Amino acid sequence: MVVRALRDEGVKYIYGYPGGALLHVYDALFQQEDVQHILVRHEQAATHMADAYARATGKAGVALVTSGPGATNAVTGIATAFTDSIPMVVITGQVMSHLIGEDAFQETDMLGISRPIVKHNFSVQRAEDIPATIKKAFYIAQSGRPGPVVVDIPKDMTTPTDRFPYEYPKSVKLRSYNPISRGHSGQIRKAVDMLLQARRPVIYSGGGIVIGDASAELTELAQLLNFPVTNTLMGLGGYPGTDRQFVGMLGMHGSYEANMAMHHADLILAVGARFDDRVTNATDKFCPTARIIHIDIDPASISKTIRADVPIVGPSKVVLEEMVGLVKESSKKPDAQALDSWWKQIDEWRGRHGGHYRTDDSELMKPQQVIEMLSKVTNGDAYVCSDVGQHQMFAAQYYKFNKPNRWINSGGLGTMGFGLPAAMGVKMNFPDADVACVTGEGSIQMNIQELSTCKQYDLPVKILCLNNQSLGMVRQWQDMNYESRHSQSYMKSLPDFVKLVEAYGHVGMKVDKYADLEGAMREAFALKDRLVFMDIAVDPFEHVYPMQVPRGSMRDMWLSKTERT
Amino acid sequence: MRHIISVLMENEPGALSRVVGLFSQRNYNIESLTVAPTEDSTLSRLTVTTIGDDRVVEQITKQLNKLIDVVKVVDLTEGDHIERELMMIKLKANGQMRAEIKRTCDIFRGQIIDVTPNTYTVQLIGASDKLDAFIASLGNTTSIMEVVRSGVSGIARGEKVLSL
Ligand SMILES: Cc1cc2nc3c(=O)[nH]c(=O)nc-3n(C[C@H](O)[C@H](O)[C@H](O)COP(=O)(O)OP(=O)(O)OC[C@H]3O[C@@H](n4cnc5c(N)ncnc54)[C@H](O)[C@@H]3O)c2cc1C
Ligand SMILES: Cc1ncc(C[n+]2csc(CCOP(=O)(O)OP(=O)(O)O)c2C)c(N)n1
After folding, report:
1. Mutate to test the interface with B, among A97, A176, A296 (most CBs of B within 10 A)
2. Which of B34, B58, B79 corresponds to the end of one domain?
3. What is the mean pLDDT of residues A71-77?
4. In this complex, do B68 and A140 lie within 8 Å of one another by their Cβ atoms?
5. Which residues of chain A make contact with B14, given a CB cutoff of 8 A?
6. CA-CA 20 to 30 A from A60: which of A12, A134, A182, A557?
7. What residues does the ACT domain cover (chain B) (predicted)?
8. What residues of A act catalytically?
9. Same domain, residue pair B91 and B72
């Protein structure tokens, strides 16, 4: 019934790992062809693959893991999806129902363990409830503010000889759950009035544009109004990265112009963004002159850390569409003169510090150069799946994302080990697309075993390992805050990655000169049917800048090792 | 400020642990908590008293509303409401103390519901501060052996109801 329900939900791939509690389900999988199972090498990777599928498509990915250690291995992946509001259904096996609570073999209380990191979870109590429960799980995961849903199924609920009538519901309704479908018209009108009067506006948009499929509406509104747009780390690609109105990412490692524009704005239109602490810096110093319009599908995101003057609860797509309509209809026009001088100011900021880094102070390749090359070689069109650390920030800053759903990274949880499985999940579903995994020598080793899965399923992703021989992001903080005491941030015993990937049956390349980079990268992407691991030696001393000064305002930033605003 | 939040939720296994978990996970405080099924056995009514500034309480109600099992949430302290708590208290009671305790009970409209040669067990219903006052006023008369309080239940005054 589990497999049938997944088939009827239209699921093509599930990612998982078998075990005792799931043997009945795996036997059912074996006997059909509609739902294909991808065998990973560690359950964490299964959840990241499912999660990345969701990030790339907007639809819930599915992971299947056994009870006990299988389920606990999936926990990091569930939490990763939860913090970034990603729809996912995770089916966990459970011991037989009569053994629950008896410390049975491979029993863990998965409902209890997962409770704080899921949108909802279910424990199946009767086998005949399986189809309806799975339907509910997909519905809850994908509607409203998306998130992961766990379905825990005791082994005896899947006994093949027990037969029950099967019906997969077409739709479900829950009296206690009614996701909102549109915003409050009065509030929207009020917001549009404010937009049309703004003199120094900024649009600050986030993951709620990407996962809410509202990129076209956002772009139209911004261009209609001629407002600058900044994206959160999660929102990149929500507005075209090469457009003149795009001022870059904001926040801790945001661009100088984005953070300056925020700080000096008189109106901020926040949409699908949650005023994360990596964005706002000290909340009491946040954007002192700005009034705030906040559109979010989750009322709890509004006025959580920063109070909104005009809250609008609703899906970004629908609300923005309505705003576009109102702006077009309105007899008022944006204040062209005020916007003109605002743009002059922004362009001046952009000219002063926009995206500069030094290449002259060492012989070594700069990580930024590698990302710029990736952007060039793939025409800004690749799916870029990142791990966590400095390389992630460089990718966010220097890859120009023109389309949504192409930048796949763990923002809220910052899960090292996410990148490779994420790239695999994307490649599986978009076999013809260029899929890059940008990683560091630290992160890649957290799920490197998945190179074996790549071999089994022929997943020719391109891995760019920015090898700085250290846990760079940790090291940077130690440089800046701990007088360069590099406690445990240095990796002394790195493997020979080229040999390692060759052992897994893939192609390895070592690049240590900038002059060789373009050729090697083009060659790697030209090898369409091979996984290529590029071990790229980069400057181990490089820091990510700008970097906001702790407890400061948006405009307080380090711009290089020696310059501060 | 102290708030009394009433929650109507699905009477399902796990629902209560989600509510309690939410409070500890998000570092909200619980002063008291009561829960029982309603006249419709598929629904439970939960009352939680908490202390926090307006922003925290706003987040608490929003986060409670987000739980899939939760049907409705109201902050009773936003309007006129009635709150009650039940206390049973076992007191040392012998000799002259017995009359004194009885008098105090009468003043607070408590009832003695169990008696032994050396103890009284008193039942008292009222707002929490009345129960506190009763305990305080016995301080000089006798010694308290055991206290059990139900936690606050509350309901809105007038025609307002919390239902489906
Ligand atoms: C090393 C490191 C450094 C970082 N530095 C930065 C940084 O410099 N800048 C930065 O921005 N981030 C940074 N982050 C990421 C940061 O931690 C947060 O993950 C990120 O800022 C959150 O992005 P967001 O506000 O877009 O929210 P998300 O987590 O993407 O949340 C989406 C919001 O949109 C809402 N939503 C969802 N669907 C819809 C819909 N259909 N309609 C309307 N609303 C919807 C949700 O309710 C939620 O409030 C960093 C992370 C790491 C690991
Ligand atoms: C699972 C996990 N453990 C620890 C951390 C803390 N952390 C954040 S960045 C980082 C260093 C990452 O090093 P590397 O992958 O080599 O990337 P670099 O910063 O050098 O580019 C660490 C340890 C984390 N984010 N995730």
Report:
1. A176
2. B79
3. 98
4. yes
5. 111, 121, 123
6. A182
7. 4-78
8. 43, 105-106, 155, 473
9. no
